[in-house]
Give the backbone structure.
Amino acid sequence: MTMIDTSLLAQENTRSLNALKTDYDSLGERLDRQGIAIDEIKQKVSAYGVAIPSWGVGTGGTRFARFPGPGEPRGIFDKLEDCAVIQELTRATPSVSLHIPWDKAVPADLNAKARKLGLGFDAMNSNTFQDQPGQSHSYKFGSLSHTDTATRQQAIEHNLECIELGQAIGSNALTVWVGDGSNFPGQSNFTRQFERYLDSAKSIYAKLPDDWRLFTEHKIFEPAFYSTVVQDWGTNYLIAKELGDKAYCLVDLGHHAPNVNIEMIVARLVQFGKLGGFHFNDSKYGDDDLDTGSIDPYRLFLVFNELVDAELRGAPGFNPAHMLDQSHNVTDPIESLMVSAMEVQRAYAQALLVDRKALGDFQNNNDALSATTTLKAAFRTDVEPILAMARHENGGAIDPVSVYRASSYRQKVAELRPAVLNGGSGIV
Amino acid sequence: MTMIDTSLLAQENTRSLNALKTDYDSLGERLDRQGIAIDEIKQKVSAYGVAIPSWGVGTGGTRFARFPGPGEPRGIFDKLEDCAVIQELTRATPSVSLHIPWDKAVPADLNAKARKLGLGFDAMNSNTFQDQPGQSHSYKFGSLSHTDTATRQQAIEHNLECIELGQAIGSNALTVWVGDGSNFPGQSNFTRQFERYLDSAKSIYAKLPDDWRLFTEHKIFEPAFYSTVVQDWGTNYLIAKELGDKAYCLVDLGHHAPNVNIEMIVARLVQFGKLGGFHFNDSKYGDDDLDTGSIDPYRLFLVFNELVDAELRGAPGFNPAHMLDQSHNVTDPIESLMVSAMEVQRAYAQALLVDRKALGDFQNNNDALSATTTLKAAFRTDVEPILAMARHENGGAIDPVSVYRASSYRQKVAELRPAVLNGGSGIV
Amino acid sequence: MTMIDTSLLAQENTRSLNALKTDYDSLGERLDRQGIAIDEIKQKVSAYGVAIPSWGVGTGGTRFARFPGPGEPRGIFDKLEDCAVIQELTRATPSVSLHIPWDKAVPADLNAKARKLGLGFDAMNSNTFQDQPGQSHSYKFGSLSHTDTATRQQAIEHNLECIELGQAIGSNALTVWVGDGSNFPGQSNFTRQFERYLDSAKSIYAKLPDDWRLFTEHKIFEPAFYSTVVQDWGTNYLIAKELGDKAYCLVDLGHHAPNVNIEMIVARLVQFGKLGGFHFNDSKYGDDDLDTGSIDPYRLFLVFNELVDAELRGAPGFNPAHMLDQSHNVTDPIESLMVSAMEVQRAYAQALLVDRKALGDFQNNNDALSATTTLKAAFRTDVEPILAMARHENGGAIDPVSVYRASSYRQKVAELRPAVLNGGSGIV
Amino acid sequence: MTMIDTSLLAQENTRSLNALKTDYDSLGERLDRQGIAIDEIKQKVSAYGVAIPSWGVGTGGTRFARFPGPGEPRGIFDKLEDCAVIQELTRATPSVSLHIPWDKAVPADLNAKARKLGLGFDAMNSNTFQDQPGQSHSYKFGSLSHTDTATRQQAIEHNLECIELGQAIGSNALTVWVGDGSNFPGQSNFTRQFERYLDSAKSIYAKLPDDWRLFTEHKIFEPAFYSTVVQDWGTNYLIAKELGDKAYCLVDLGHHAPNVNIEMIVARLVQFGKLGGFHFNDSKYGDDDLDTGSIDPYRLFLVFNELVDAELRGAPGFNPAHMLDQSHNVTDPIESLMVSAMEVQRAYAQALLVDRKALGDFQNNNDALSATTTLKAAFRTDVEPILAMARHENGGAIDPVSVYRASSYRQKVAELRPAVLNGGSGIV
């Protein structure tokens, strides 16, 4: 079963294939001059995948408002279909990351649907930053670090439930992000609060299956506006260290203080064996959750430069999970996710082009100019022909967005799925 | 009619009056040594008022969740009652600022209720950052600066409607804040977008009654995350200048880039005759909308230092509107607003204590150390006795929060007003 | 006269010319498919030039230390020779911007030397942020805004002297940057200080020749650390407006608060006819003065996107001056300036490739995704063949850095110019 | 021997003693109502001391310029005399922290001078961020993390020399701050660079005397502008952890990214037993090195709130070193250091006033408003009478700045010490 008509796809690809071949060949020749075999790069790009968050296919919003688009998914099964569209056209997003309780469903049904759509399941995401109807204890003042034991226990059990569901659908990682923190100096005792967080995290970790990993996520602010329990990678590292070998740090590109050098944090976590993975997105101000690479593509490249370096030198325990995590407020989420998945691939492909032998020599000789121009030369190489050829050979689209638009998928689901009337939150 | 039992108030005040008198007298003596008459300061503090935003009495939230408290106001009339509590206890918040359409009601009913509660109406606030049920055109891609003429016209008319309602209830100012901007480089043409904004603003300004003022508000980001049409005071100034003499700039303390010197912006706007007023709050990261003075009380003082300086030197056209604008996510909104109103008063009182003659001399002599310690000496004076005495003499509470708690107002309204079940937004 | 041996240059170019032709042709074919004539782009790039600051050819430093390299220029005539190297190899830097008093010399000598080297003179830069030996009044507490009349007068006269020298050497612009500000709250009265600044600036402006322009430069902080008189574009705009039609705002890319959208500021200044020009560089934290495009090349492109848009639509009075302004602490300044000049050209070339008709349509239809991918498509085009071909055809180097290294210019001047022994400042 | 005439001091104190007694008594009465014994607070304040950095008594500067004042100290012995003035008048600064090689001298001479002046020696500071005349290897590209073994070895040996000198003068701590980092993406391999840093640090640590502590200092940027080896507390913690039990993290208040919650970092380091101490100062933008408490006094209080909390609960291994580290560019350094020492004491005194029992209860009950107003109540208490009384009883000045000015110390040393003519650096 495919969501996008394969004959349409074939027909669209046919139109641009000749130009693609020309561009691929001329790029190949140019790379060959540098001693790089384009097909090897293509092969690596082909094998690369980034997970899609189930919530990403719905229109996002802000505390001020949400403006839904047509054909909003009504539940996890609609979401999986939207994810399948992205995978069919880009061949870069083989798995979906679920968010509980939003995506709660009978495991067998999830498995059946995913199998049919050719999708797998990535890390599970728990939610203790919102109250759900019927919930005994409120997370208004925290969850895993709440002052009240029963509330913490409720949050722990929710995480265990996520693991249980995850096991039933083939996931092997749990991502824990909490909004716990404070809005006022003095509201929380930083030390006690973190002790409680660690205690709760240990209770979850104790039940983590042997082949699972636990990812904790840091964030400087929002929803807490004075302090956040897991505010930066320093605290995140302490957590992973306290918990044990299956605990790792997750890096979301939008969760840092202004000006912070994120690629360096990535390097540090790799060096100390604690890089768990990424939530890819982009930001200009705060946790803007913009499309990956849309604001600062060079920064994304510099992150991948660290990842490829770690991969090539075989850094111990290096096996990061890659996921998109974006809020699509003004675009069709399917389009944004396709473009973003390709941006991640692009950064990966560019980082593969870096002449690491030359770079290492320049670094050793403190030839800063040549070192940096070595990175820049890789970055400014237009690798689009490599990405497009990889997609095409994998059965995807040379130009995913234009095939998607030609397919009228959005219009079709808009007819099936009722319009969402009330999109505004009015939370200010 | 009073919302808080006056005998309870009297009884609570009686308990702390002696200590207050002692503290007031010893402070008076100390100020007298510096040549300052404490009663004159008290008189100015007494006469000072800051407006309350109607939406401030409801529990706020973030894009992740909202956790309502007991007794949430059901509409504008409940909100006015909550505002009256604040005014009765603090005697610092004589007026309320309405937000349309949230607070739309029959003007006569609004007037009657306000009169009964001893409240007035401050600036009107329009809303073109959300879609309302039944609205013809969506603000998803902007309002006053939208590419589509009909959408802009709808936004203009909404603002005119706000003026009309405002005239009926005795307001004489319109505050315009729009979320218009973009989330992606290239999404909007900055120049065309600002031209459209100016055109729309001129259409509103053209209908502004002669005795009204128009306040436009700048904000660096959120809800737009790449660019915002009115992103800073520079653009805001251009707007006020283009519109005319009744147009002024509104400064929200949380709407600036990190590290920006806000008190200097205040000084510039005063100097060029365009300071319209304030939305007071505090912030550590972005537009956190925290309680005024809760994060950086010295910054608030420095803002008031500029205001008092302008007041005393009689800066031409200087007449700023003062309003709180906060989001109360983890506190009882009534308590937060009472404390915040007092913090604003406190900064005003401290700024009144600055020895401006000495300060001016130090500035002229470039005695930086003495200049700054002159400000600090005023700031570190504990003016609480002045504020408390002013409240007491005006019929308010010496300790508003403890009287409020003693009154069980929150528990009483919680019985009358149904609990809000679904507080979560789930917009990520 | 040339600084670099022309036969060496020719020989080096010969080695890479064939590959360049291949790349140029395949890029030409690809652009042709998009309806773009590569030769037209090349022509525009050819005609483009960015000025070099005379001080840029010396090794820079920080308040902690300066680590000079070999062959540091001993004065303005050495500096001009270094600048000539850059121009000979890149053909992108036809003029030099002088800094007075550092570069003070007999005008006829300057003219003769420049003529011989094929260089012109760009904007003059005054210096009132340092004390010079024998100076009557210190700028410790300010210059154009100093509380003392005589100090202000001295600063005014210095600027007039810069104009006079500039007239003698064919310059037609004066750039004024002052460090005036304060380090403590209360140290300066913001309003009085700005009034004094405006008065002084008017005195300079009054003497500005008719065919000259005055550029004022804003900067958020450093060397003043609490407030700066010309702290942002808002204040800078007010200055240019107060002064008159020959007064314009200069934008240095590193002089803004964190997260600020600089391309939007550029658009605003263009729209209101006050964009004077640029000091190009890059930054990650503050006024880092790093090589242009080395940290965030997409931001540089977005700035040029605004400039090309303004150029193509014929924005009234649009004629910005382009200059590099960098501090080269760890590289050979000549290499950094060559690479940076080419980065500026690159951003210009990429911005020329933007399909503005399509972009405008996407903007009008609020197709944010297509709009932003339109920009991205231009940005990720590797325009190096265009730049290299333009250089080659203009008599420059296909690969300037490698020709420069092959020339041993640095080693040669190191023999002529005495080593600078004491590079450290020890100012902490 | 005293630097300030004791009879002058006595005479000045006499003038303000009566007012002080009145203020002290009325504050005592007020605190008594809260169950606080003012004399106990005074006793703790009396016992508190903060070290002075030897370099702090000279006028500081920026990369643009330095404007020396009259009577600049000519060397370490002049500096010690200036430090003695500060201690005599404030009785809050019993020790001096030396910077090598700037303060290198015969240990016996240092000891003799210090004994005579009543001063002790605090932590030693090494300098591998500048090149010294005659130095074999340059630190242009790093020191402890340099790619070259010999350069690293030179930096290690310099640190060992600092320890040796420190042992001879009674110091028992070494503070290591390096500027190592990079200015360009790719210039350094983050991982290799940090490995080298750790190796070097281990070599120093291996020679650390048993009763010494090693303090490493993190800083986000400057003098390196793209990356810094020890960029934040996370990396700093890893260093201290790798080194061993005598290694601790030093926190400089100006060394963090914008918006970062510093008091929380302090709490984390205390919790994990790695808080070594502080470099106190204040900042608005970057490492501004402004006078402590001059920009955000509440933040300083919040740091002390953590310290007092740790002190009172007996946090294991809690014994932080306190030092000022400021750059005095526009004030008399002696005045700035006196005022700053008192600001640190003030924050300490205010933090001692916090009702910790009540605060703990509010925190446990999630009464955010009461918790934060509990802190604020302590902060806004004007503790000046406590500080002044402690100074007076310890033989210091009630008003140190006015006694200092009355003493004409600056004018006297200006006669003895030759004027510094060339203050400008001209490093841009």
